[in-house]
Amino acid sequence: QVQLAESGGGSVQAGGSLRLSCAVSGWTGSTPYCMGWFRQVPGNEREGVASISRHGVKRTVDSVKGRFAISLDGTSDTLFLQMNSLKPEDTAMYYCAAKISYTTHCSLQDFNYWGQGTQVTVSS
Questions:
Q1: Beta strands of 41-114 (E only): which ranges?
Q2: How far is 51 from 20, CA to CA, in rounded Å?
Q3: Does the N-terminal or the C-terminal CB of the chain have fewer CB atoms within 10 Å?
Q4: For 67-80, what is each residue's pLDDT tens digit?
């Protein structure tokens, strides 16, 4: 059973930084997977932010490119999202997600394992 647990959210002023973490458990050593970060504002659809494959291939959406960086520590099975130059429009609940995948590149669709979320609030 794959379990994901996010941490690191909080409140910050515009221009500030936060680092989100996601502890992953339940993968076997040979499981091919993709992992990703998503965010959702109440009343809006959930939006993919970034993904990373087990091979280390990364994908970041245009709205956060150059400001957000996804990374994966395979030793500790921890996923990170470094968020710099935060803007009020980045305010959302951020979710860590995972899926089994045999592809080198990870799309931001069809994730089926989800964490509980961590709130990020950016004030102007």
A1: 47-53, 58-60, 68-73, 78-83, 92-100, 113-114
A2: 14
A3: N
A4: 999 999 888 889 99
